[in-house]
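Regression check, magnesium ion case 149:
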Amino acid sequence: MERTFLAIKPDGVQRKLIGEIIKRFETKGFTLVGLKFMSVNRELAEQHYDVHKERPFFGNLVEFITSGPIIAMVWEGDGVVSAARKVIGATNPLTAEPGTIRGDYGANIGRNLIHGSDAIETAQREIALWFKDEELVNWQPTLTAWIYE
Ligand code: DAT
Ligand code: MG
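Current build output:
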């Protein structure tokens, strides 16, 4: 089953949007398999955003993601990587569609509330970076037959 890495960024935590954000993935039908509330050190932040290290906003990105606690999560489901990106919305909250998390709660590209892996291979890399195997829970919700044919 496909898995993705999602993280509620420091702005989402500070703005008390943890419950609201998690609820959207739960009610959609995805399965939570890992979750931790944590501070991010500079080394982890730089590894996570390694692909952006040459970009002008890289310094701000690392500063921001290490500025307060975050929620790191792994979610499972058919097509969850791209479907979660749709629930999250476009990178810039100002152009993200209403109904998406960023479209509903964000107003600035540098404060866009949540991270989601952008491809299956990226998800595998990010899950391995943020979680140990034993921190992930393999389970099948009893509701599964009512969500999947
Ligand atoms: P996404 O988070 O939608 O995958 P991304 O991977 O292109 O977007 O960029 C990572 C984060 O970097 C993004 O969530 C916010 C920040 N960012 C991206 N483009 C930016 C820009 N032009 N100016 C400032 N911050 C930017
Ligand atoms: Mg990205």
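Comparison notes: The helical segments are 10-14, 18-28, 42-48, 58-65, 80-88, 101-105, 120-130, 144-147. The radius of gyration is 15 Å. No diff flagged against the previous build.
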